[in-house]
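Retro notes (design track)

What went well: tokenization of the new backbones is finally stable.
What didn't: we kept losing track of which sequence belonged to which structure.
Fix going forward: every design gets posted as structure first, then sequence, in one message. First example under the new rule, 131 residues:
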């Protein structure tokens, strides 16, 4: 009898954990979806904001490459503080904390498709030929 009760309690705990994880995943997906909408309306004119494609403005980094060059907290902090850039076309967008979190969540969701920073750097050419 005691064994059956322990199994029942364990099953109830696992069910509660699964429910909590599912709710958290839905919340995360809602943030990502919100960030995607923000990117589409504010960033897509210059940046490649999806898992594929080139940036309309050649010097604008692809979001998928940003995702592998930064971590979530640094990206969110940068958005909260205002992204500093030397490029005059980059607008000064004062995001709310919720917008900063959502946009950072969307960008980080693209990390599977981005090139690592080391892949973006080209190796120096020595100019020496080998037979």
């Amino acid at each position: 009898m005691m064994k059956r009760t322990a199994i029942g309690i364990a099953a109830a705990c696992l069910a509660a954990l699964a429910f909590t994880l599912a709710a958290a995943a839905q919340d995360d997906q809602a943030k990502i979806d919100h960030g995607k909408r923000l990117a589409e309306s504010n960033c897509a004119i210059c940046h490649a904001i999806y898992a594929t494609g080139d940036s309309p403005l050649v010097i604008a980094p692809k979001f998928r490459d940003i995702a592998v060059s930064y971590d979530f907290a640094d990206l969110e902090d940068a958005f909260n503080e205002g992204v500093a850039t030397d490029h005059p076309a980059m607008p000064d967008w004062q995001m709310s904390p919720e917008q900063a979190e959502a946009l950072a969540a969307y960008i980080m969701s693209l990390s599977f498709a981005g090139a690592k920073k080391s892949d973006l750097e080209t190796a120096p050419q020595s100019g020496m030929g080998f037979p």
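Added context from the reviewer: The radius of gyration is 21 Å.
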